[in-house]
C-alpha cells in the first residue's frame, strides 16, 4: 500500500503543557497518538512513556532478539496485528510500573495506533482518541471503539435516561493505559482504497471542531496533507482550543503500474 502521511501536536489555547504525544514511523508503517492524564506533569510523562514503549517494542522486532507474543494468541488476526496488541500491552506495563513513584500515581493515557500490513491497515485503541476513515464517498466513519461512560450508555440504550448527567461523568474513560495491570485492546482491520484518508487524533480536535468542518478540510483539493493537518489544528483552536490537539493524517495513494506488477509476482 502506498501512503502519504503527516502529523503534528499542538498545546491548544488554554493548557499550560501538552499532554499529547505522537509517533510517525514510515519505516515501520506505524502511527500512534497518546493523550495523557494525571496531576502535575504526569499526563505528559504517561503519553511519552506510551509512545516510547511502543516504538521500542517495534524496533526490537527487527533485531536478533525480538519480543515474544504474550497476549492475544487466541485472537483471529494476523501475527503483525498480535504484535501491535502486544506493543500496547507492553506500554501499559511500563506506565503501570511507573506509578510506584508517588509523583506518577494514577497517571494514565489513551492510545490509538495504526499499523500498515500489505493492503491492510490495523487499527488498535484503548480510550477515546478516535480513528476515522474518510472514504471516497466522503463519509467519515469512526473505526476505533470509544471507551467512555457516555459510549457505554449509548450501547446499552441508556443514553436518554442519563442524558442530563454531567459531561464530566459521561465522558469519563472506562479503559485507560497504565491504571491497571492489564488492558483490553480493541482491534480491527481496514482495507482502504486509493483516495481514502485516515484521521488519527486526540479528542482535542473532535471536541472543538464539528464533523462537517473536519470533512470540509479533508476533502479540500487545494491543500497538501501537511496543510490539512495545520487547518484541522487551527479549526480546533478557533473553536475554543480547550485541550491539546494532535493530528495524524494518512492518504492512500494510487499505485503505479510497476508497484501493481510487483504485487502480482510477490
Question: Can you tell me about this structure?
Answer:
- Strands 2, 3, 4, 5, 6 and 9 form a six-stranded antiparallel beta sheet that branches. The protein has a five-stranded antiparallel beta sheet with strand order 1-11-10-7-8.
- The mean pLDDT is 90.
- It is built from eight helices and eleven strands.
- The protein has a single domain, classed as PPM-type phosphatase domain (Phosphatase 2c, domain 1), CATH 3.60.40.
- With 266 residues, the chain is an alpha+beta fold.
- CATH class placement: Alpha Beta
User: What's the total helix number?
Assistant: 8
Low-confidence runs of at least 5 consecutive residues: none
Shape descriptor reads: globular
Helix content: 25-40%
Salient structural properties:
Phosphatase 2c, domain 1, alpha+beta, 5-stranded antiparallel sheet, 6-stranded antiparallel sheet, 266 residues, single chain
